[in-house]
Amino acid sequence: MVHGVTVGQAAALGAGAATNAAPPQTHWSFQPVRKPAVPAVKDARWVQSPVDAFILAKLEARKWQPATPARPADWLRRVYFDLTGLPPTPEEVAAFVADTSPKAREAVVDRLLASERYGERWAQHWLDVVRFAESEGFEYDRPVPDAWRFRDYVVASLNADKPFDRFITEQLAGDELDPENRDYQAASIFHRLGAVRRNAGNAEIALSRNEVLTERTDIIGTAFLGLTVGCARCHDHKLDPIAQKDYYRLQAYFAATEEHNLVLATAEEKQAWDARTKAGQAEIAAVKEKARQATGAEKERLNAQLEALEAKLPAPLATIAGTWNDPKKRTLITVLRRGVWEQKGEPVGPRPPEVLIADARPELPADVANPRTQLARWITDPWNPLTARVLANRIWQHHFGAGLVKTPNDFGLHGDRPSHPELLDWLATALVEGGWRLKPVHRMLVLSATYQQASEVEGRGSRVESPRLRPALDLRPSTLDPDNRLLSHFNRRRLSAEEIRDAMLAVSGRLKLRTGGPSVMVPVDAELVKLLYKPTQWQPTADVTEHNRRSLYLFAKRNLRLPFMEAFDAPALQTTCARRESSTHAPQALELLNGRLANELAAAFAQRLETEGGGDSQRVVERAFQLATGRAPTESERTLALAFLREQPLREFALATFSLNAFLYVP
Fold this sequence. Notes:
It is built from 27 helices and 6 strands.
């Protein structure tokens, strides 16, 4: 017994806390996906979607009840941020609250899913997983030519609701499918997203090639299969049934894959660019020679001249930094003893990991045509037990705060067990049956009764009970399910770094909604720029109105993290990020009070409030809360705000509004 609960009950309530005792061959994630029956429940009136039946069945088994429905304005704010990453306007909130139509929520969801903003929001989730960056990292951190084209490809694909199996295939093998298709070429930038060590400019040495192949293999496991296949690079996987030989068989699909920069320019344009570049580089070389021999002030002057000359070099020609297969450069893939590239072992050909195939298929020939198309065909095969489960889990995670499997990149023996395994398989099969389209799944989830629950738990805000009056065994959901794995209420969440910045831009009236195109470099402290290999690598975009674009369009440089984004847990871009952390620490408060971004946007917000409030403090406070929080202020908030405005300028009030929990959190 554990505090009056049997060990069996505790294990069932803990869901993901139980250990994975099953042998690898019977582990749940390696079993074929089968669509389970929707469970029967007592309170059938609560069920608005099959999803609700799975959730309610577990709650009823414990004699728990779901939370009351969220207030309409709270649900609206929740679904706006989830589907678009932006807050609703006060006018949109008022219209929705006043709409008594039974189809009001469906109309909102359909409108948001049809918006370009949807693709921008959900693209960020995928870019996190594939560790999207626009520079190569390590010492030189060279830019990947026009890597923003991959970001635009992801946004456009999601907005078009492209079937996800096709989306996967284009990224893995777009250049094989149609070498002349520029969208497919942009999709193949996927293989260029890993960090690359250039080794003093020599990209051809064997060690560099091995690192690139390792990057390209590891991301297949984490992004598509939810497995830590990279652990098998040096030896057989210690936990999962993945042999070292399986790892190199997977790597063999990339043996001939090479970088291929497709320059989008005419012969005349390229000739003119070459001439200007050659002349500029000759001038730079001459100044460099003088700088080597100079000292003191003269050397400083020449170094400054060098920076100016480098900044004047012609901008790179429009390029797609894709890949292609080069048979002449095909790497012989062998099992590397201890993962050391000099210690070659048995040669291998392309083949999926044995635990994930249903037959004893042989290795493909090393020179098989279109090897990555073959890989994509296996990954998206409905028989594959992982791909659809992993994708369904990612979608669930971004709507409910945690995945049904809390380790979204690890479905192996050391990963979390699903809290609702039947629901996970039901969603996975529904996804495949629906043609791998995501929008119907989003629609089903955000219109479910589970999603529409309030986030308040029982007892919050109530008076404290005397310990003597409490029952000896507290069986409330908040006690037995502190992580809310069974979803007896909705999980309130802090906005991501991108959402906070975009919301600040939106409420201040400065947000520039333009989709696509080259990424934006915003001004940063000179001390950060000086840390780069070359300060010329960071040149703020000349058009200052571009600085007000959505955070998705900010230049993603590995060796320069924007302080505001870093403070609010934006990933470091070095490795895959399957789940954003949500930390709370002092630098966040400092960024919101003293940071350049917060203060600039607070000034714009104050100007907007002055205009729309007509100088009346009551109207200013009302409008500020409507814009920033999606609701009117409470009486306590109104009193405090008016008292604050009597002593402080409007700009300080606008700045303080950005620090409100009601602004920073989704209810």
